[in-house]
Amino acid sequence: MSLTDHSEAAAGLTAAAADGSWTLDAGASSVEFTGRHFFFLPVTGSLPVRSGSAVIRGGLRQLEAEVDATGFGTGNRGRDKAVRGPAFLDADRFPSIRFKGERLTTAGPWQVTGLIDVKGRSVPLTFTVDTEACAVSPDGTRAVVHATAELDRHACGVSAMRPLVGPRLRLRVRAAFVRAAE
Questions:
Q1: Which 8-state DSSP code applies to residue 18?
Q2: Lesser CB count within 10 Å: N end or C end of the chain?
Q3: Phi and psi at residue 80, in whole multiples of 5°?
Q4: Do residues 124 and 97 touch, judged by C-beta distance below 8 A?
Q5: pLDDT, tens digit, 9 for 90 and up, residues 49-62
Q6: E strand intervals along the chain
């Protein structure tokens, strides 16, 4: 079953519905970002999702996701090549960006806290889950999770062009999961 963002047949995300083992459907998932050029002009783009999985049993047991740094794209070929280069992501040496979730908080707004690994440097990152936009298929086999976070690129070692490029990136994740056989 294909699950769209707000399918009428889908139920919202609850802690009970989230329990289980999940595999990320990379082709149906996305990571988008917005940054600032000259500190005020927005620049948007995306990174392809490679893989991921989650195990939730009364709380987060395991969450891992990987995106492809070599696929960084904003629609501007010159900018994209520069950002994939050694001054920014150094994607030839560090082709993957990984997130490892360590904690899921469901009291109040859901939050997933963990570490993001960029260029061999791990820094803390917290995603806020938009449970209103999330959905679980009626049979409980698919779930789509929407989450946002703000990432300090300088903390990740991506600090080139400080006077021209803002330090913060707003991340938007759409993660489509398929329940794994247990």
A1: H
A2: C
A3: -60, -45
A4: no
A5: 999 999 998 888 99
A6: 20-24, 30-37, 41-47, 49-56, 60-68, 96-105, 111-118, 121-129, 135-136, 142-152, 168-179
Burial class (CB in 10 A: 0-12, 13-18, 19+), 64: middle
Across 121-181, the runs of DSSP E, i.e. the strands, are: 121-129, 135-136, 142-152, 168-179
- Beta carbons within 8 Å of 147's beta carbon, 6+ residues apart: 112, 127, 128, 129, 130, 172, 173, 175
Question: Tokens representing 21?
Answer: 């083992």
Estimate to the nearest angstrom the gap between the alpha carbon of 166 and the chain centroid.
20
Radius of gyration for the alpha carbons in the chain, expressed in angstroms and rounded = 17
**pLDDT of amino acid 59:** 85
